[in-house]
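One-letter codes give the sequence; the fold follows as tokens. Both lines appear below.
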Amino acid sequence: MISIDPKEITTPKLHGYLQSSIGPRPIAFASTLDENGNPNLSPFSFFNLFSTNPPILIFSPSRRVRDNTVKHTLLNVEKTREVVINVVNYDMVQQTSLSSTEYADGVNEFLKAGFTQLSSEVVQPFRVKESPVQFECKVNDIVSLGDGGGAGNLVICEILKMHISEEILDENGNIDQHKIDLVSRLGGNWYSRSSESLFEVEKPLTTLGIGVDNIPKFIKESTVFNGNDLGKLGNVEALPTSEEVAIFVQESFAVKGVLSSDDTQKIHTMAKEFLDQNDVMTAWKVLLSEKK
């Protein structure tokens, strides 16, 4: 493993390491107006949600690494204290990338990238019609993190109004993560498409998991299971009872067959198959039947 002191490498090199190792990063597609009312549109991947009450988004238009200049978006929010943050999905990612071209001051990126200007309701900057979710925001504060190339400027935005396309909602009125099809930034030219790699991890909020420390040693030392498997096994509130395990073994011909082989590797492999299907309690029954 290499160890790096940020002060001992060039800013461009550090920039590349950071952007390639911290991600995927959501994209703030920021719409602003200059002091003369000219629209500006630009994406920023230093962005996230930081509070729900009040609803706060923060994005950072950093000073350019190569020449230490600042971006039009930063100048605009300093003047007007308003911004619309639009989310970016797969259908608009190429146009969004095009809008990041450093056009001259006053050039309308809506027109250059082929997006549709949609009037906002409580702020002056336009919304991007093609974006599935749009946030009209006031700028509460701008925090400069430095005066050198690569230094960030935290634009702290309070959401005044949120607009959601009905097309991305499920039958319960919630945002469907497949339908919204968000994209995010990685290092270099790389992006990530969330809908192609979705998986669920049950949050340990309503139950008190037994923890990995309470998993029997013969399971923790198995070469079949990885850290994710142990995390799932440790996130159950209680283990199956001996009676439940006995009934399971009695009713499962497949388990009986594996147990009769007295092959620990096969038993653990069967348990892992259930873990991969997120059927954790059945995986536990398989594992505990090994000691019957």
Notes: The CA atoms of residues 250 and 256 lie 8 Å apart. The two ends are 44 Å apart (CA to CA). The chain is about 30% helix and 20% strand.
